[in-house]
Amino acid sequence: MVLEVLRASDVPLGVASIMQAVERRFGERIPRTSVSPLLAKLRDAGGIVLHVGGKWTVPETISES
Q: Is 52 a member of any domain?
């Protein structure tokens, strides 16, 4: 769910914004104590990027033509 909202966003999102977007889109409340460790694991695996200011995005993929 977290990855889905990050992929759908045109701008980097902070933890609170991610939590709100998940609740709006999926009707699920995820506690901050679950979201923050998940974001750190995804970052360590290269699945997401943390920007200055504590905002998160999914890395852009480069398509080869």
A: yes
- Write down the pTM of the prediction: 0.87
Tell me whether residue 63 is in a domain. no
Low-confidence ranges of the chain (pLDDT < 70): 61-65
User: What residues contact 44, with CB distance under 8 A and at least 6 apart?
Assistant: none
Q: Would you say 36 and 54 are in contact if contact means Cβ atoms under 8 Å apart?
A: no
- Please count the structural domains in the chain: 1
Question: Distance between alpha carbon 27 and the CA centroid of its chain, in Å?
Answer: 17
Tokens 């933890």, residue located:
15
- Give the C-alpha separation, 7 to 64, whole Å: 20
